[in-house]
From TrEMBL:
Superkingdom of the source species: Bacteria
GO MF, one example: metal ion binding
Gene3D superfamilies hit by this protein: Hemerythrin-like
Stretches assigned to the Hemerythrin-like domain: 18-126
Entry protein name: Hemerythrin-like metal-binding domain protein
Keyword Iron recorded: yes
Keywords, ordered alphabetically: Iron, Metal-binding
Record family assignment: Belongs to the hemerythrin family.
Iron keyword on record: yes
Taxonomy of the source species: Bacteria, Pseudomonadati, Pseudomonadota, Betaproteobacteria, Candidatus Accumulibacter
CDD domains for this protein: Hemerythrin
Pfam family, one: Hemerythrin
Amino acid sequence: MEIALSPFLPEALLVGFPEIDAQHEEVFTRIESLKAGCFGNTYVDIAEFQALLDSFTLHFATEERIAEDAGIDFAAHAKIHRDTLDLLRKALGDVIKGERDAHAFLRYAEYWFERHIREDDKRFVATLQESRHFRLPRSRRPVSNRLFSARA
């Protein structure tokens, strides 16, 4: 499975599992799109912000399915997912009510997700690689001409 990734997912955040890397890329792309759309604007497209939360939800469910298929204890990681979704939903509610800045919400979501990938998702994929009952799909990051430099 070859995935064409845009420049929003830095090499350092690739975990080597194509489905997970593609979902990470989708989340970062949505965040960047929302940041660009909100810049200099007071209008917040709530449907697009909800789509971001839906991307997180799908991604978390995917990881949980993969862990279950591999027979890996994922309870602690799944709790992080649930707690984060609760926090992001509350924060988005604050944005909708005008109590929180949309850019602050997006900066937090982006920072949290980068840290989560580095500290939790990479460890999860390493555990998958060690599992005798699970075989990781091959992952190759295609070489592309990038118009933007990736964040580090």
